[in-house]
Amino acid sequence: xxxxxxxxxxxxxxxxxxxxxxxxxxxxxxxxxxxxxxxxxxxxxxxxxxxxxxxxxxxxxxxxxxxxxxxxxxxxxxxxxxxxxxxxxxxxxxxxxxxxxxxxxxxxxxxxxxxxxxxxxxxxxxxxxxxxxxxxxxxxxxxxxxxxxxxxxxxxxxxxxxxxxxxxxxxxxxxxxxxxxxxxxxxxxxxxxxxxxxxxxxxxxxxxxxxxxxxxxxxxxxxxxxxxxxxxxxxxxxxxxxxxxxxxxxxxxxxxxxxxxxxxxxxxxxxxxxxxxxxxxxxxxxxxxxxxxxxxxxxxxxxxxxxxxxxxxxxxxxxxxxxxxxxxxxxxxxxxxxxxxxxxxxxxxxxxxxxxxxxxxxxxxxxxxxxxxxxxxxxxxxxxxxxxxxxxxxxxxxxxxxxxxxxxxxxxxxxxxxxxxxxxxxxxxxxx
Length: 432
Known about the structure:
CATH architecture of the largest domain: 3-Layer(aba) Sandwich
Largest sheet: 6 strands, mixed
Helix content: 40-55%
Order of helices and strands: HEEHEHEHHHEEEEHEHHHEHEEEHHEHHH
Strand order of the largest sheet: 1-3-2-4-13-7
Number of domains: 2
Shape: globular
Distance between the termini: 27 Å
CATH class of the largest domain: Alpha Beta
Radius of gyration: 21 Å
CATH topology of the largest domain: D-Maltodextrin-Binding Protein, domain 2
CATH superfamily of the largest domain: Periplasmic binding protein-like II
């Protein structure tokens, strides 16, 4: 998941080449080394993040087994590491003599784009044509760097507000209505929003919500792809709302900068927080974890009359290492994941929304998953969606964004100063 991996520049990437692989766990079916499987067939090495729960791990192992059943001459070795270690490990492995053949990683320019710039990825344009992969055009662009397609997006995601239906009786349409709900929750001794920013990246998602609403899709596109600027009153207002007003109103847990993302989520899962602003990637965990109350979701409401534009975009993507020992086997695995069989399996078991059209008739999914699926798959290119900023911006911009929001939360930097710092970082990255 993009949420934990800090993007890295090409210079830093190369500097980290000597880091070790400590802590990596090889899961799935073990091979015999090299390119030869246990029964004399092929081995495909698949690098991915570790699953969050034991049940999700079993589902991933089932997916591996389904692929191997359809490809009996291939053994898929899955190397899974904690998400927070994934960046360092993949950097090391791609520069080693034993890189993974295929791996799951984030698709933004500060993520997959850095690997492409370093010459460590295989272009996939020919594979798209040969296999006729039906990835949405807009999603495909998220894995295109320097005019070449290097990745295959795995899923689309939306950043929204989940809520406890026992504690939040009505969906707010405006920030004033949301404040009223938050104040009532505080009066009951319940934290209004489960939000923790120890890792820094969660603040980027709140910022994406704010600027998507304040600027709308078109206004945000003018910054990301045109000549717009970050140091505007609308951006300052978004920063002020989420990182000063809500902090001073005590809508977040005390000591928010020291609280981890997982611990904040746990407040919501246990009923100690009324709302959880985050992405649809947590739906499988909500379905598995929350048993005592019903969960719903809504897009963040209108800010001072702004549009309601929840950020949406691509989550992780699949990439093939430039020096993969079995690139053809890697492409077979990617091709399998584009199949109707794999897509329906992942929707039902992981509640993910594939980045390509899928026949949803007869799917067996929980009600919350069904609602999210309907919301995102109705029109994947809907003009009402905003953008998740960090996957479209440079590593330098993201660093300024992440550390700066912690300073705004702590009171050592003003919203105006943060907006100016973002603009400086944006201008610098464009010049570079």
